TrEMBL record:
This is UBX domain-containing protein. Gene3D superfamilies: DNA helicase RuvA subunit, C-terminal domain (1.10.8.10), Glutaredoxin (3.40.30.10), Phosphatidylinositol 3-kinase Catalytic Subunit, Chain A, domain 1 (3.10.20.90). Its main location: endoplasmic reticulum. Signal peptide: none annotated. InterPro entries: FAF1_2-like_UAS (IPR049483), Thioredoxin-like_sf (IPR036249), UAS (IPR006577), UBA-like_sf (IPR009060), Ubiquitin-like_domsf (IPR029071), UBX_dom (IPR001012), UBX_domain-protein (IPR050730). Residues 59-69 have a biased composition (Pro residues). The lineage of its organism: Eukaryota, Viridiplantae, Streptophyta, Embryophyta, Tracheophyta. Residues 308-349 have a biased composition (Basic and acidic residues). GO terms for cellular component: endoplasmic reticulum. It is found in: Endoplasmic reticulum. Residues 49-69, 307-354 are annotated as: Disordered. It holds the Pfam family UBA_4.
Length: 453
C-alpha cells in the first residue's frame, strides 16, 4: 500500500467513490494516510471496514451528548469545507440586523463569549457543479422515498444542490434543515423510519423549514459532512445563509433522537431564530417598498418630461404611418394581382397536365374490344354513385383498370383503390401486374372506387 496508485484504488474499492479527483483530494487532505482518510469518510460509529488483506478496528464510541443548552449557539461555516470554530451567542436584543435577503448578506454584531483554542481547516475544492449536485439530490430523494416513505409521509427534501436549497431558504425567509444520510450506519434505518418520517416531525419540518438531504456516499453530501464536522450519525443540522459564502450553523443534532426530542430541538431553534427571520422579511419588504416608490417617482418624471415630445412625435409618426399605409396598400395590390396571375397559370398548367395524362392513359388502353369469350366486362362505381363500364381483354392487367379510371377524369384525387365487394378484395399496388383472368375478374367484374384516407 506504499504506492500512491495502490492506495487510491484501495480507497475507491472501500468507499465506493469513483471520482478520481475527489478521491485524490481526500487522500491528500489526510497526507495519504489511508486509514485516517477512510475513517473520515465513514461515521465514527459505523461498522469497521474490512477486506481480505486489511482490517481497520472500530473505535469505542462515547455515549451520545445531551441536546445543546439554550441560548442557541451559532457557528460560521465557510463553504465548501472551511469551518470557523467558536461559540457565538444568539441573543435577541444583541443582534444588529443588516441585509439578509435579495443581496444574500446578513450583517450582525455578536459578543464573543469565550473564544477558545480552535483550528480552521480549509480546502480549495469547490462544490460539485449545479447539474451534478442536482442529479445527486434527485437520486437521494428517490432512494430515500423507496426506503422509508413517500411524498407526504417524509420531509419534502428539495431535488436540487445545497447552494440552490440555501438560496431557496433565503428567498422564502426560512431556515434550512439539513439531513446527512449515512446508508451503512446501524442507527440510520430506525432513525429514518421512526423519527425523521414520523408524522409530527415530517409535518413540522415541511411547515417551517426548507429541507435538503444528501448521502455521504455522494460527492456533495460528503463535502458537506466535512464542512459541518459531522462526527456522529444520524446527523441533522439547521443552518441559515450568512455573508461571504458562509452559512450560520444554528444547531447540530448528532446521534439517534426520538421524535419528541427532535421536535423539542427544532421548536427551540425556530423560536430563537424567529426574530431574525421576521426582521429580515420586514427589511426586505421595506426595501421593496422603497424601490417601488422610486420607480413610481421616476416614471412620473419621465412621463412629464416626455409629454411635450410625445405630441410632436405623434404628429410625425402619423404622417409616416399614412405614407407607409399607402405604400403597403400599393405593394399588396401588386402582390395580389401577381398571385392571381400565378394561380391562374398554375391551374391552367395543372389542368393541361391532367388532360394530357388522361389522354395518354386512354391511348394506352387501345381500342375497346368487341364481346367475346376472351373479353371481360368491367363495371366501375364511383363514390358519387356514377357508374362507368368498359370491355377489356382477359390478358389485360389490373394496371389497365387504374389507367381506365384515371382517363375518365371523374376523381379529384390520385389516391384511391379498386375494390370488389363479394368477396371483398382490394386490388392495391401489389396486384397491379396480375392479369384480369388471374385475378378472378373474368368474364365480368363489378368494382367500386374507394378513396384512401
Amino acid at each position: 500500500m506504499e504506492d500512491v496508485s495502490e492506495k487510491l484504488e484501495y480507497f475507491k474499492s472501500v468507499t465506493g467513490l469513483q471520482d478520481h479527483d475527489l478521491c485524490t483530494e481526500i487522500l491528500q487532505a489526510h497526507n495519504w494516510d489511508l486509514e485516517l482518510a477512510i475513517s473520515s469518510f465513514t461515521s465514527s460509529t459505523a461498522p469497521p471496514l474490512t477486506n481480505t488483506a486489511h482490517h481497520f478496528p472500530q473505535q469505542p464510541q462515547p455515549p451520545p451528548p445531551p441536546p445543546p443548552p439554550i441560548p442557541l449557539a451559532w457557528k460560521l461555516i465557510k463553504l465548501p469545507v472551511t469551518v470557523i470554530s467558536g461559540s457565538l451567542g444568539l441573543l435577541s436584543g444583541a443582534i444588529g440586523l443588516g441585509l439578509w435577503a435579495a443581496g444574500g448578506v446578513l450583517s450582525y454584531s455578536l459578543g464573543i463569549i469565550g473564544l477558545g483554542s480552535s483550528s480552521a481547516s480549509s480546502s480549495t475544492a469547490p462544490l460539485v457543479s449545479v447539474s451534478a449536485a442536482t442529479s445527486e439530490a434527485m437520486d437521494f430523494v428517490a432512494e430515500f422515498e423507496r426506503g422509508y416513505g413517500s411524498i407526504g409521509t417524509m420531509p419534502s427534501f428539495v431535488s436540487e444542490g445545497f447552494m440552490e436549497a440555501l438560496q431557496r431558504s433565503r428567498n422564502s425567509f426560512r431556515l434550512l434543515f439539513v439531513y446527512l444520510h449515512s446508508p451503512d450506519h446501524p442507527d440510520t434505518p430506525l432513525f429514518c423510519e421512526r423519527t425523521l418520517c414520523s408524522e409530527a416531525v415530517t409535518a413540522f419540518v415541511n411547515d417551517n423549514f426548507v429541507a435538503w438531504g444528501g448521502s455521504i456516499r455522494a460527492s456533495e453530501g460528503f463535502k458537506m459532512s466535512n464542512s459541518l464536522r459531522a462526527s456522529r450519525f444520524p446527523f441533522c443540522a439547521v443552518v441559515m445563509a450568512a455573508a461571504n459564502q458562509r452559512i450560520a450553523l444554528l444547531q447540530q443534532v448528532e446521534g439517534p433522537k426520538s421524535p419528541e426530542e427532535m421536535l423539542v430541538i427544532l421548536r427551540r431553534v425556530l423560536e430563537e431564530s424567529s426574530p431574525v427571520l421576521v426582521a429580515a422579511r420586514l427589511d426586505a419588504e421595506e426595501r421593496q417598498t422603497n424601490v417601488r416608490l422610486r420607480e413610481e417617482q421616476d416614471a412620473a418624471y419621465r412621463a412629464a418630461l416626455e409629454a411635450d415630445q410625445a405630441r410632436e412625435r405623434q404628429r410625425r409618426e402619423e404622417e409616416e404611418r399614412l405614407a407607409r399605409e399607402a405604400a403597403e396598400a400599393e405593394r399588396k395590390r401588386k402582390e395580389e394581382e401577381e398571385a392571381r396571375e400565378r394561380a391562374a397559370q398554375e391551374a391552367a398548367e395543372k389542368q393541361a397536365a391532367l388532360a394530357k395524362l388522361r389522354e395518354e392513359k386512354a391511348q394506352s388502353l387501345g381500342e375497346e374490344p368487341e364481346k367475346g369469350p376472351d373479353v371481360t366486362q368491367v363495371l366501375v362505381r364511383f363514390p358519387n354513385g356514377e357508374r362507368k363500364g368498359r370491355r377489356f381483354n382477359d390478358t389485360a392487367t389490373i394496371q389497365s383498370l387504374y389507367d381506365y379510371v384515371d382517363s375518365l377524369g371523374c376523381l379529384e384525387t390520385e389516391s384511391y383503390s379498386l375494390v370488389s365487394n363479394f368477396p371483398r378484395v382490394v386490388y392495391g399496388q401489389e396486384k397491379l401486374t396480375l392479369l384480369l383472368k388471374e385475378a378472378g375478374l373474368h368474364p365480368q367484374a363489378s368494382l367500386f372506387v374507394e378513396l384512401n384516407s
